[in-house]
Amino acid sequence: MAVLKVAHLGHPVLRQVAEPVPPEGIGAPEIQRLIEDMLETMDDHDGAGLAAPQVHVSRRVVVYGVRANPRYPDAEDVPLTVLVNPRITPLTEDQEEDWEGCLSVPDLRGKVPRWTRLQVEAYGRNGRPLRFVAGGFHARVVQHECDHLDGKVFLDRMRSMETLSFLPEFHRYWLRADD
C-alpha cells in the first residue's frame, strides 16, 4: 500500500467527469491496488472520504468512513465503504446546510447544502451490487465524494461565499458561533 499525492484545486483532473470502471474489471489488480492506496491515503490525511480523481486517477471509485476522526470529532460514525460507479438519488427534498472541507481544497471550510437522505447504488469492492439508504452525515459524505466523480468540489455547491473560511478563522469565529 502507498500514500498517494492528493490533487489540489486547480489540477485539471478535479474538473473532469471520471470514467466508469467496467464491472468485470473491479477485481483487477490495478483497481484493487487503487482502492488499497486510496484507503491508506484517506487514513494518512484523517479524511472522511476520498475519490479517485483526488489522487490523480479519473475513475468512478470512492472510499469513505468515519470513526473517531480528529478532523470530525463530533461526527456520527460512518461505516468504511468502497463504492465503484456510484449513483445517488435523493429520497427527500429536505436539505441541510453544514460545514465541509476537502483534502483537495486544503485549509478551507464552508457551509454547503446537501440532501438529508439518499438511495445509494454502486458496486462494492468485491464487484457485487450494493444498494442502501444513507442519511445525515453519512449522506453528506457520499454526496461530497460523488461530486468529485463529476468534476465538482464543495465550493461549487455553496449558496454563499460568506462562510468560506480558512481553518484558523473557522476555529476562532465560526465554531464558537455554532455552539
Description:
- This protein is globular.
- The strands form two sheets. Strands 1-2-3-6-7 form a five-stranded antiparallel β-sheet, sandwiched between helices. Strands 4-5-8 form a three-stranded antiparallel β-sheet.
- It has a single domain, classed as Alpha-Beta Complex (Peptide Deformylase).
- A hairpin with a 5-residue loop joins β6 and β7.
- With 179 residues, the chain is of the alpha+beta class.
- The chain contains four helices and eight strands, in the order αβββββββααβα.
- The model has no long low-confidence stretch (mean pLDDT 95).
Which secondary structure elements does this structure contain, and how are they paired or packed?
Elements: H1 29-44, E1 49-51, E2 61-66, E3 78-90, E4 95-102, E5 105-115, E6 117-123, E7 129-135, H2 136-149, H3 154-157, E8 165-166, H4 167-178
Antiparallel strand pairs: 1-2, 2-3, 3-6, 4-5, 5-8, 6-7
List keywords for this structure.
179 residues, alpha+beta, Peptide Deformylase, 5-stranded antiparallel β-sheet, globular
Low-confidence stretches: none
Q: Which fold name corresponds to the CATH topology?
A: Peptide Deformylase
Give the number of domains. Answer: 1
Helix content: 25-40%
CATH architecture: Alpha-Beta Complex
Question: In a nutshell, what does this entry contain?
Answer:
The protein has 179 residues and is α+β, with helices and mostly antiparallel strands.
